Amino acid sequence: MGAPVHSLTAQTQKSLEEVKVDTRRHKRHLLGNTISRYYFLFSILALCLVLGLVIVFIGKTALLLFGSISPQDFFFSFNWTPEEDAFGAAAFIVNTLSLTALTLVIAVPISVGMAVLCAEIAPKWLTSFIRPVLDLLVGIPSIVYGYLGLTVLLPFLRRVSGEGLGDGLLAAALVLALMVLPTICRISDDAIVSVPRKYRDAAYALGSTRLQVIMRVVLPAASRGIISAVILGMTRAIGETMAVVMVIGNTPQLAKTLFTPTSVLTSNIVMQISNVEFESTWNYSLHMMAFLLLLISFVLILIIRVLGRKRRDA
Amino acid sequence: MKVFRKLTVTALTAVIAVTAAFAGVAAAADSLKGKITVNGSTALLPLTLQAAKEFQKLHPKVKIAASGKGSVTGPQAVKKGIADIGACDWDASIDVPGFKAFEGQVANKVAVIPFATIVNKNVGVDNLTTEQLKGIYSGKITNWKEVGGADANIVVITRAFGSGTRVNYQAKALAGGDIVKKEKNYKETGSSGDMKTAVGTTPNAIGYIDLVYVTGSDIKAVKFNGVEATTDNVINGSYKIWAYGYYMTKGQPTGATKEFIEYVQSKKFQQGSLKKLKFIPIAAMQS
Question: Where do the PBP domain residues begin and end (chain B) (predicted)?
């Protein structure tokens, strides 16, 4: 008699314990969820706060500029000689836009082509070689690219073009293209890989050639991913400073040719910010240029987002 | 075990005794304490760092923090109260071209900095006069053959406006002449290192730099009005492109700051470490 009763009690106790453990585990999970929810919320709020502070502080200092000179002078004058109180930033704005455009013209076809190669055409061993190399390239500090530009690319450009200096938009665009290439390539690559296999199968079943499949099916299907890759590459190109400073020549004038030594917003800021008095018009105008960079990248991202959406709707 | 313990005790005693002895010596010599912040010129930074290292050894209770970002940031930081000492390549208590005087600041001379005109190794010219340099930097002379070289366009490389090196070069080598931007063959660099690389890698380039940076075979220093750029020629007065380096302070320096500046100006430091760093002692110019 004793033994079964004993085992019964044991059994009951055991299940009771299990229930208890389950409740405890449940409570623990609830707590974990709550904590992580607050943690993520906090992270997002902190990020927004920091971003907001950056915009507010740069903007606040920047807007002081218009106490001393008019917006027309700043945005539409090409005369930047701050030592003689002429603060016209139009040349930098135009140069920044043309440098970014030139960079993308060089980088996008090559990097999307490489992405297609990696995702669609290349044998596995080649792909598994290219991808890590590209990932590695992203990690190289930009000043190293700049130094290579200064010591390798510039002498080469001088020889090819017969120019005395070689500095200018072309040199900067080539260096930047090399820098944004891995970013654009790897993200486009991921986008192309994630296009469902059935699309390709269907296209092949309809009798498409490989080129037709890639151009008409795969690339359009991956276009949103490719567009975000281009956005990321572009923002890097606009904001990149150190590498550009070393090869662009840093002469505040409009770039009329590809080899005119010139200056963009970022390079002008970094060249001058440490030599300028804190509370001067010059300092405010540099802050305004920084604020402008922020706005330019913001607007460009918006434009491309809108374009991407339209493309998808069509 | 016993031996081991004995050894430990002996060692500890010895350490304590030595420490006490040193602490006693240091304490006897040193009632000085405080914190000194130095900001400003990158050209003077190596000197400041070396002096700080030696000074802190003498006065362990003094903490010195030094950083460099460009000459004009020195007196600015002093003005804002961020730094006690503003290192500057020019006397910021008086007006210089482009920069107004910083009111109420005192300039303490700490070193002599020589500058040199440099050209790429392919340039055949080895002497330039003040007039020729003025012509080159104002854009009137654009070809090396006009100053006795080969038929090739001159590539002008200069530092950004506000650089201490540029302020001094303009005042001494160009006799106050302008540096004019040109359409082509004109480039600005951000630091002495960039200047050296740019002149070294660009054929037909001309630039200017602190004399201590003139090393290697890619660049060469040219004579100025027939005088070679050497520290000896600076000291005997025949080579004119040099400037004093200054420690700017708000009013006359006091306390630890005063002691530190006096240490940098002392004969021991000027004739020792400062010379080793290839600066020139201020006493050499005043005598």
Answer: 27-267
